[in-house]
Write a structure and sequence with these properties.
mainly beta
């Protein structure tokens, strides 16, 4: 049966990280990493020392990472844990949150017309300019395709894009129109993207957010379908 259930109520610093093993990672305003089951049971602190930000599961749901900082916000690095919450490694000298992770590569939008790909096995960091820098095409979110051959990107002003690593071609999939803006992009199987769509309107000279909806789109940017969460 389709039922809506409140799992957690409180301020979050980063979006919840939903794994494929029945666990959700939360990052509340206390800067700790909490875990909770899909059922809403077993809420507990996973990591509470110093400051921790932006937990992310890898695509396979077998490992997760987050950025670990001292009390003065100096980054220690990104620890890696497995799905049973056992410590595996710590990648030092990096500070990654809100990235997409497949195999051993972390993909991150950099807030301009570029993306970064970090291979934490080899330590290689690639900064890739995928578009022309301007005040329109600034990428705020990125996610891998399932095979790791493309990156899907969100520009808060210009819409959704696809970047192919082999051809180095950037394709505009869907524009932000009718005051719709997309955030928190992710993949859904082989054929679909899922995102949060915010709809804004102008009222009295101010922009007002009138709705936030989870939507599913084909990877060519067509056939947007609202995902209805029942009351």
């Amino acid at each position: 049966t389709n039922q809506k259930q409140l799992l957690y109520s409180g301020q979050l610093l980063f979006k919840p990280a939903v794994g494929k093993n029945g666990w959700i990672l939360l990052n509340p305003s206390d800067s700790k990493i909490w875990k909770i089951r899909f059922s809403g049971e077993d809420l507990s602190v996973l990591l509470g020392d110093h400051k921790n930000f932006g937990p992310n599961w890898n695509y396979e749901g077998t490992e997760f990472t987050f950025n670990h900082q001292l009390e003065n916000y100096e980054s220690i690095g990104n620890p890696i844990y497995d799905s049973s919450f056992a410590s595996l490694d710590t990648i030092t000298g990096v500070s990654y949150t809100n990235m997409s992770w497949i195999n051993n590569k972390w993909l991150n939008a950099r807030g301009d017309a570029s993306i970064s790909v970090f291979n934490y096995d080899s330590g290689e960091l690639q900064q890739i300019n995928v578009g022309q820098s301007n005040d329109i095409v600034t990428f705020v979110n990125a996610c891998w395709s399932q095979d790791g051959q493309q990156a899907f990107l969100v520009s808060s002003k210009a819409g959704l894009y696809e970047y192919d690593f082999s051809s180095q071609i950037l394709k505009h999939l869907r524009c932000n129109c009718k005051n719709d803006y997309y955030f928190n992009l992710g993949t859904w199987g082989n054929d679909f993207l899922v995102a949060v769509r915010e709809r804004w309107t102008s009222l009295g000279g101010s922009n007002i957010n009138i709705s936030s909806t989870i939507v599913r789109l084909r990877k060519d940017g067509t056939e947007e379908i609202e995902i209805i969460i029942p009351d």
